[in-house]
Amino acid sequence: MAKRKSDWFDWIKAILIAFALAFIIRMFFFAPIIVDGPSMLPTLHDRDQMIVNKFNYRISEPERFDIVVFHASVQKDFIKRVIGLPGEHVQVKDNVLYIDGEEVEEPFLKDQKNKIKSYQTLTNDFKLEDLPGGYETIPEDHVLVLGDNRENSTDSRMFGVVSMDQVVGKTSLIYWPFDRKKILGANE
Fold it and tell me: Which residues form the Peptidase S26 domain (predicted)?
């Protein structure tokens, strides 16, 4: 009888440890997220399921074109692409991205840019100064984010730069649906 009690106790202890480890991993390292809406098309599709790396930005800084998840409100997280980094000036003119006055290619928009006609606009012209906050350069510990679907994205053009305190983490792994499973690179 004592052996049976000991076995049950060992099983309960193992299950509790497993739950504790899962909780710690989810809270501090990795978490699933589901893409909600078309703002990152064609890179990410509505209902794509991804893994967010919450640990990455604790040991490194964001890089241009990282795809990040951030708290847009208490109830809602957004997924967007980092375009501008701290200390930079960002401008888009005639569908061309300029960082500190230098033209920067956006390889993930290549197909979209090839499909538009000369009189169409993929990204409406803007300068950092025109955005909420009116900054001349992106402040320390902030990033400027845009959706890949520039015509249908609520992003820094509407709400301004994003504080790194709001950033949950970086995401690059689509794990569901299975036929879209892949790790995204900077060109995607």
Answer: 9-176
Strands of the sheet with 102-104, listed across from one edge? 102-104, 96-99, 90-93, 126-127
Residue extents of the structural domains in the chain: 30-183
pLDDT at 111: 81
- Is residue 92 within 8 A of residue 83, CB to CB? The reply is no
**Is residue 2 very low, low, confident or very high in pLDDT (cuts 50, 70, 90)?**
low
Taking the C-alpha atoms of residue 76 and residue 40, their distance in angstroms, rounded to an integer, is 16
Q: Where are the alpha helices (DSSP H) in 29-171?
A: 56-59, 110-115, 156-159
Top-tier CATH class for 30-183: mainly beta
- pTM of the predicted structure, to 2 decimals: 0.84
* CA–CA distance, 112 with 122 (Å, rounded to integer): 8
Task: Catalogue the active-site residues.
Answer: 39, 80
Per the CB < 8 A criterion, the answer to whether 167 and 69 are in contact is yes
**Alpha carbon distance 71, 164 (integer Å):** 10
Helix/strand/coil for 26:
helix
Q: Is the pLDDT of residue 41 over 80?
A: yes
pLDDT category, 73, cuts 50, 70, 90?
confident
